[in-house]
Amino acid sequence: MELIISIIAVIISFVTFLYTVLVEYRGEQREKKQSTLEALNLLQEQVFDKLNEYTFAEIKDISDKWNESAEEKRKFVTAKKGTATEFWNTHHEYDNTINEYRVLSGYLARIEHFSLGVNTGIYDVKVTERAATSYLTMLYKKLEPLILTKNNSNNSSYENKYHKEFGKLVTALTKLEA
After folding, report:
1. Considering only CA atoms, which of 163, 146, 152 is closest in space to residue 58?
2. pTM (predicted TM-score)
3. Does a structural domain hold residue 55?
4. Average pLDDT, stretch 51-73?
5. 18 lies in a domain?
6. What does each C-alpha distance from 40 to 1, 46, 47, 91, 106 come to in angstroms?
7. pLDDT tens per residue, range 67-78
């Protein structure tokens, strides 16, 4: 009789353990989904709304002007007319381009951090897919000139792979939606 009671106690303990694990897992999944929505809402306020103020053409123009200014700076320094700092101090025609490029780069970095969170499982990929696939895909295409500019930088002899998490996320979301 004691053996039966002990077996029943072990079974009840095991079932209770499984139930606790299930409840904990579901709670974590709910938190993950909630965190994803909160992160998307924050991105909407701090990044997406601001990026909506730029057109595809404006972003391409900023990227092209950045490339032009970097090339002019390189020529200036190579011709020994002065240092890079002296170039920027004397060529104020690029000030607006530099500022816009940095602002866009900051937005892109925030998107990259979110993408890394989704790609590593910190945020929920299915919630992201349901909430933002079309928008993130469009945004990637819109920011592509900026990403290409960063990846083709003349300042490095290395093959740059900036913002690969964003591209990886867009690819994964597109596959999920298909």
Report:
1. 146
2. 0.80
3. yes
4. 93
5. no
6. 58, 10, 10, 39, 16
7. 998 888 889 888
Q: What is the DSSP string of 97-160?
A: HHHHHHHHHHHHHHHHHHHHHHHTTSS-HHHHHHHHHHHHHHHHHHHHHHHHHHHT-TT-SS--
pLDDT of residue 160: 61
Q: Are 128 and 174 in contact (CB under 8 A)?
A: no
Residues near 160 by beta carbon (within 8 Å), at least 6 away in sequence: 150, 151, 152, 153
- Domain containing 47 equals 32-177
Q: Supply the pLDDT for residue 80.
A: 86
Count structural domains, the chain.
1
162 falls within a domain: yes
Q: pLDDT at position 62, please? A: 95
The per-residue pLDDT for 77 is 87
Q: How far is CA 141 from CA 13, 35, 122, in A?
A: 54, 26, 25
Minimal CA–CA distance to 178: which of 141, 144, 133?
Answer: 133
Domain assignment of residue 156, yes or no: yes
**At residue 101, does pLDDT exceed 80?**
yes
